[in-house]
TrEMBL record:
CDD domains from the UniProt entry: MPP_PAPs
Purple acid phosphatase N-terminal domain segment(s): 28-120
Ranges for domain Purple acid phosphatase C-terminal: 363-425
Catalytic activity: a phosphate monoester + H2O = an alcohol + phosphate
Designated name of the protein: Purple acid phosphatase
Domain Calcineurin-like phosphoesterase, first and last residues per copy: 131-338
Similarity-based family: Belongs to the metallophosphoesterase superfamily. Purple acid phosphatase family.
Secretion signal span: 1-20
Amino acid sequence: MASLCTLLGLCCLAAPLVLALPPFKSQPEQVHISYPAAPYSMVITWTTFNETESVVEYNVWGGKLFDLMAKGTSTIFEDGGSEKRKLYVHRVTLSGLRPGSAYVYHCGSEDGWSDIFYFTALNETTSWSPRFAVFGDMGNENPQSLSRLQKETQVGTYDAILHIGDFAYDMDEDNGRIGDEFMSQIQSIAAYVPYMTCPGNHESAYNFSNYRNRFSMPGDTESLWYSWNIGPAHIVSFSTEVYFFLDYGVDLIFKQYEWLKRDLEEANKPENRKTRPWIITMGHRPMYCSNDDKDDCTQFESYIRIGRNDTSPPAPGLEKLFFLNGVDLELWAHEHTYERLWPIYGYKVFNGSADEPYVNPKAPVHIITGSAGCREKHDGFIPEPRAWSALRSTDYGYTRMQVLNHTHLYLEQVSDDQYGKVIDSIWLVKEKHGAAAWL
Ligand SMILES: [Fe+2]
């Protein structure tokens, strides 16, 4: 009897140790796809919490399921929180895809496969009309626009999604679990169309490590800045945050600036601008806004616009660079509102004409679309719109964009508060692109 009690006592002592073991998680989750800026390709990214192989099985829609197979690699991402949680982030590049064809895939390994997803390989010509959902500032809590975006994405409304910074609020919180949950939430859109991103201020923890490790954007900058082509558009994504988080390296401002300069010069070579005339930029914090926060561009002159003179050497801003390179459209977020600006440069409005301001405008057009929904809710506006502010809305929502052809680009704003009502729309029409268009 005594020996049984002893035995039971040992069991009781041993039990918590057994219970403390984390679950074995080789099941893929947080599946999302991105375009690697290499024609006929797509990158599939997902997470496991135990080490597994990185395999995607796929085929064209209607073909024999999973007849094709591609292997990739995984990297261990250790979150910077106290638990030092480890994630295995898997990346597989599918190449040789048939442009415009639908593909069915699952990802994982013999230790567990994901659900089945599908995507359409991008049309690689410059004569089609890609459609985008565009927004920033969507969180794990209060992601107001997400269900509408899920439905629209799954019925094929979009060819790509642009998320202009600020994810999850914040991905690093609860030792990265908020990031995990957010990436699982967006799987319902991001596993179906390329989910293209740029970093925002909410990604800053541990030197943007959650952002850099979880996404798979083109190039070799860990998704911080890159460009890619789609249809008649060249899209440039960059980090506004290099201007604010100087502890992570002032040199990043200069590295990015030099990269932007080279990229824009390349995109402006006559043979390139002729085939992809639209140059569209996306960065998180806007150069202009008329919000009433304490820390934004209403209160302070924008570092993004004019640079910083308190660094050594002084850091250049981007407004002039973008203007001189004939950037057509600049997409921003950060403010939890929607604001459309008249064509603007140096605080001056340069409408195409009084009747048709967006037909052959003489300066870039700015759109601020950061109202997808997050725990910080809405931002407000200062009472009087600035002379350069064309339309403002505090509704939750997102932007739809279609690059119709070489001369016409369409933008509309969807209000989630008003059950999907389109509350603003413009046609941006340009018979000429490049700096010559401003003359
Ligand atoms: Fe932000």
